[in-house]
Design a protein that fits this description.
The complex is a heterodimer. By secondary structure, chain A is mainly alpha-helical. Helix content of chain A is about 40%, strand content about 5%. Chain B contains 5 helices and 5 strands; from the N terminus they run ββαβββαααα. The chains are: A mainly alpha, B alpha+beta.
Chain lengths: ~200, ~150
């Protein structure tokens, strides 16, 4: 009779997003995350595949320098032109050489031309994960001090709705897009949270 | 569409996706900004938009929303801009092709940091390439324009 709990868990996890949505409308009730480690880890893997992808990770760097990578670049390399986060820590570059000197609101359609999206800049220094392990990134995403003071639902919404994040799936000619889509990643984060948000 | 370039209103009827550099050079006849690489990788095409440097070879002209200043619009009433004068005083140029872009970036740097350090200069100017290798004289000219003539 071991199959019943498994079926029950599967059913609960299947409907967990709906349950959470329902619970969020009822301010008097808080839905407890349903711990389903196996499913949760499977959902996290989808999320990690996006976060660790060069289109996202190359600008979530710790050492002030964004990265370049892709079929035309060979191994990942430091962005040319001494481009840096900026002495003010803003992530928008330095005087005389802001990100916006070359990166505009749309992708250049010329191969090797600069990609573009609204508000182009490096991720804040506390939100760096370039080169980190899946477990490290996972723990970071759950930590409000390192995720922009967001709940996981807010992280999901940020991934779905932010124009600069959305660029990862539409990176312009010659660049491999991040896997899946913004909506699929949003759903994966919610499903991961509903499964207890386990980390590897 | 209407553009304000070097203090003049210019009517340009082109595809909005045309790079600003093409519109300036081929349509408006403003030849100061130069074509180098076409992918924002050399800086020869640098102009200012509302004082901020941009690579005009990759900016769609339809996305321009501010006042464009090219190398041709720096001088006022017959007097060179202090950065242009410093460039002459330090005899920076060799072949000269990249220098319009170099000067535009230097102008933007000095507007933001009036007395830049070597580190400030390195960070600002690294996207403007010079095949002749005039970098020491560029640095000297920026310092001269800031009021700190040191020689190359």
């Amino acid at each position: 009779m071991t199959s019943r709990p498994i079926i029950l868990a599967a059913l609960v996890s299947l409907f967990a997003p709906a349950l959470l949505t329902s619970a969020s409308a009822q301010t008097s009730q808080q839905a407890e995350p349903v711990v389903d480690r196996e499913r949760g880890l499977a959902e996290w893997e989808k999320v990690h595949a996006v976060f660790a992808h060069p289109r996202c990770a190359n600008c979530h760097v710790e050492d002030e320098h964004p990265r370049w990578s892709g079929p035309h670049y060979g191994e990942t390399r430091v962005h040319a032109f001494n481009v840096q986060r900026g002495d003010d820590g803003s992530g928008f570059g330095n005087a005389g050489l802001r990100c916006s000197t070359c990166h505009f609101e749309t992708n250049s359609q010329v191969l090797h031309g600069p990609p573009g999206a609204e508000n182009w800049h490096l991720a804040p220094v506390e939100m760096v994960w370039f080169g980190k392990t899946s477990a490290e990134i996972c723990a970071q995403i759950k930590d409000p001090e390192r995720n922009g003071d967001r709940s996981l639902r807010e992280v999901a919404t940020h991934v779905r709705d932010d124009a600069l994040v959305a660029w990862g799936w539409d990176p312009g000619p010659g660049r491999e897009p991040a896997p899946g889509s913004a909506e699929e990643t949003y759903q994966a984060i919610l499903a991961w949270e509903a499964s207890g948000a386990p980390c590897p | 569409m209407q553009l304000e370039v070097d203090g003049r209103q210019i009517d340009i009827q082109v595809d909005p996706q045309m790079p600003l550099l093409w519109a300036l050079r081929d349509v408006a006849g403003i030849l100061g900004p130069k074509f180098g690489c076409g992918i924002a990788a050399c800086g020869a095409c640098t102009v200012l938009i509302d004082g901020a440097p941009v690579r005009s070879c990759v900016l769609p002209v339809g996305d321009v929303t501010g006042r464009v200043t090219t190398i041709e619009g720096l001088a006022r009433d017959g007097a060179l801009h202090r950065v242009q004068q410093a460039w002459l005083d330090e005899q920076v140029a060799q072949c000269g092709y990249c220098q319009a872009g170099q000067i535009m970036t230097a102008v933007a740097l000095l507007e933001e940091i009036p007395d830049p350090t070597d580190d400030d200069i390195d960070k600002a100017m690294a996207g403007n390439l010079c095949r002749c290798g005039t970098y020491p004289r560029i640095r000297a000219a920026i310092k001269r324009a800031a009021g700190n003539a040191t020689g190359a």
